[in-house]
Amino acid sequence: MSADFSQLTDRVNEAQAQIQATMSRGRDELRAQVEQAQLIAEQQADELRANTTQTREEATTNWQAVQDRWHAHIAQLHQRAADKKTERDVRKAELNAETAEGYAQDAIDFAIAAMQEAEYAVLDAALARADADALTGGR
């Protein structure tokens, strides 16, 4: 940037010296110098346009690359979130299954205990009846 500014200063000083020298020249010589200056100015304008176009294309390409990287990053974040959600859903489903299986086992254990209790109650009732019949003389 500093070198460009120095170059600009040199060009201004050079142009100023040429303009002062030209003022003392004749009309034909002045016309030739104007045409030369116009030609140089057009060449520089063409170079500037070419550089601007190239810079614009590079900027567009770079911007597109930044956008592509950003979109890939966002897609990766979304995929990670989806993976975590799936992982949480799998863990939740596994926990639900384990809870349901535990409840089913408890219900089976309760039913077995209830059957044993019922068997005991029936046998105890039968024994009580037999004792009562024995005491009453078998009526």
Brief summary:
With 139 residues, this protein is an all-alpha fold. It contains 2 helices and no strands.
Describe the structure.
By secondary structure, the protein is mainly α. It contains 2 helices and no strands. The longest helix is centred in the middle third of the chain and has 110 residues.
Give me the secondary-structure topology.
Elements: H1 2-22, H2 27-136
Order of helices and strands: HH
Strand segment count: 0
pLDDT below 50 for ≥5 consecutive residues: which ranges? none
Class by alpha and beta content: mainly alpha
Entry keywords:
139 residues; mainly alpha; 2 helices; 94% helix; 0% strand
